Model the fold of this input.
Amino acid sequence: MLREVQLASSDPSSAGGTFIRLILGDEPGWPLRIGWDLTIIFLGFLGLASMVAFIGIWAERKVAGRIQQRHGPNRVGPIGILQSLADGIKLVSKEDLLPRGADGWLFRLAPYLAFAPVFASFLAIPFGPDMIFEPALAVGLFWMLAILSVEVIGVILAGWSSNNKWSVYGAMREACQLISYEIPLGISILIVVVATGTLDLLELSRMQAGGMQHWLLFHQPFVLAAFVVFFIASLASNKRAPFDLPESESELVAGYHTEYSGLRFSLFYLAEYNAMFVMGAIMTILFLGGWDDPVGYLSAWSARVPRDVMSLELLAVNAVAFHVFMAKTCLIIFIQMWVRWTLPRPRIDQVLHACIKVLLPMSLVLLLGSALWELFVQNTSLMQRATQWVLLTIGLAFVGFIFLMLAQAFIQGRGKQYRLSEPAKLGI
Amino acid sequence: MQAILFYIFAALTLAGAIGVVASRNIVRAAVQLLLALLGVAALYFLLGAEFLAAVQLVIYVGGTLVLIIFGVMLTARASQKLLNPSRGEQIAGLVSAVVLLVALIASIVTTRFPDQPAPLGRYSLQALGQDLLGDYLLPFELASLLLLAVMIGAAYLAKKRPHAKGEV
Done:
């Protein structure tokens, strides 16, 4: 907090923190500052988090319905949009059960440990040109990755403290899956960092201003492939199908949250949908140009708006940018749902095999390629001759190769007979 | 303001640390360790060292702590019963704790802390990277060598030995 104030005074031209400067003055006293922060957190972020879960759960069931040729929820409200509200009332009125032999303290704590990190990651997301909670966070990207890695502890503790074998299996799967997939996730972020040289999410968004051709996705072929690696790894780290083994309902009842009911159960849902949202937001910022629209009109407009007075125009440009950002994020969330209801679930050994033997080496190759590209091709005459289409072709070739390897990994060991007395061979 | 936050997070860290020592249940101890580690990360944030704070989260919370809980879960039966250290373990623990305490106190007493607080300049990630791969390249590489040795050792231990006795 102190550092932010100092930065604002030393660097008044910085666009971040515009609103707080315009509303509260250049150096607000600490009661004002805390009041502002709490308002943003409780009204802005908590509201956003609950809306994400509210709309997300309804949308998931609608998408699932369409894919399975049925209607999905359509009774509560128009096109069933209030379904989550009805579910919420039902969950709140349920009894808060504690299974016999469970570790009560940990059992009650675990849902909060699963949700809080996802919520904390909101503070580094730039929703618009001036809409970021902590504009001076120079390591925003790394912070997101770090705080999201805490979520797994909540899930593991939930499974362990339930005193239920299915839950423990779910928690163990979650632990090994998450630890493995965190590596390709981190490396694919590193590929972007190699290409841009910054961890600042606000700066990353600004870099891609001016239309679709400036988006990092089309910046170099390796970033395009990194996007695919990141997407797959993010599915795994969010426990989304086809990587939903920690809660695979056909084997483990409901996995780590089998024993939960009522409000604590709904916290896990809140965590899951907000983790999807945060991953979608990271992908939007890293690869899809952040809050800028595909034509680049918004960034040009934002650059024209004066930032030394509070004006309706400033609010308008941020509001429009926020909606563009949300539209891109929702598109990614939709793809996550689409994948979930389309693909079958592999076994846990296939999941780990796909990570360690396919995604990890591929992401390392991409990292090397990205570094070499930045050194020898970017900004040289070679680059000028190579058109966007050539880059796109190389990138898509890499993507195709990744999918080929993944398919091979998932087919491997298919049809083998495993005896139930040999859980070790099944890989837990 | 800074001082109030500092005392809150310091108290959190201390409470977590005392909890780790006092708890007889391994998993609960791990959760209290989480509290202590988060407190330290928050202190780093307060000092304007966000990179260090994020590293603290990634390595200790996301990595080490998860591995601890994972290990406890894999040996689930042992974790059900409470920690009950033997006399020898108690003595060894006491000795190492006293040695660590003496070393820490000695280093705190002998360090000359600057009277003026260091200026909080713009935090530069680039400078950190330059230092790590420039002036401090040798220690950096040595640390990675150590990690490599640990990894090889782990791989050796995990390797299947065909003629090992008592193998299931």
